[in-house]
Design brief:
Layout: E1 2-9, H1 16-31, E2 37-44, E3 49-56, H2 59-76, E4 86-91
Helix pairs in contact: 1-2
């Protein structure tokens, strides 16, 4: 399993919720069709930053998610996210998921 983390400096006059809505409605339909997609999260990480976490079965999917994000942000949020994000891609070395809390047994 591989994870791609992108942290953006948020510069916008739009409310953060409007940016998040754009991501939910515009970007998530794109990223979830990337081969090997497992999950996606976007976080308000405070101090004017927005961070996304994409999870994939293979490194190629994580790398592709970065390309798709760059393209989508450039076309749809250029004033809200005007600078390139800090990007981290890596293989998951340890993880745990509490399936009982999620209602999955």
């Amino acid at each position: 399993m591989y994870v791609a983390i992108r942290q953006y400096g948020l510069v916008t006059s739009e409310p953060l919720e409007k940016v998040m809505q754009g991501i939910r409605e515009g970007f998530i339909p794109i990223i979830k069709n990337t081969p090997g997609f497992l999950g996606y999260y976007t976080l308000d990480t405070g101090s004017g930053t927005l961070t996304s976490i994409s999870i994939f079965e293979h490194r190629a999917g994580a790398e592709e998610s970065n390309r798709r994000a760059e393209d989508w942000v450039g076309k749809n949020l250029p004033s809200a996210l005007p600078t390139s994000p800090m990007v981290i891609v890596g293989e998951v070395g340890a993880h745990e998921l509490n399936l009982a809390k999620l209602g999955i047994y």
